[in-house]
Amino acid sequence: MRSDITPGQTSDYLGFDLVMDNNLPEPSVFLADRGYDSDNVRKTMESRDVVTVIPMRKSRKLRVAVDRRLYKLRNLVERCFNKLKNARRVATRYDKTAESFLGFIDIKSIRLWLRHLST
Length: 119
Hints:
Layout: H1 12-19, E1 29-31, H2 39-47, E2 51-53, H3 68-71, H4 74-84, H5 88-92, H6 98-118
Parallel strand pairs: 1-2
């Protein structure tokens, strides 16, 4: 998992470039919500031979099909964020610096992963 901080008013697709650097393992499928529906995101993932599963915004003129079976898997990611936000420190962002906040997200993610492995 990779995380980064953007200003609160930043759109999702603008934060896409920060998270999807080339130093990550190549995904086979990119699941995202409508906030990531932009031509730039779709072209970037297509050039990396990644299947994009992003519902279209209502204002999109060129319609693109979405594999609903794959899109349902996005629920797993949403549940992961929900478990991260169970930590009050993450949900309210008490930390003053971005480094300590991201460090705590890493610690919480590791704890969730270890709990998942033990079950």
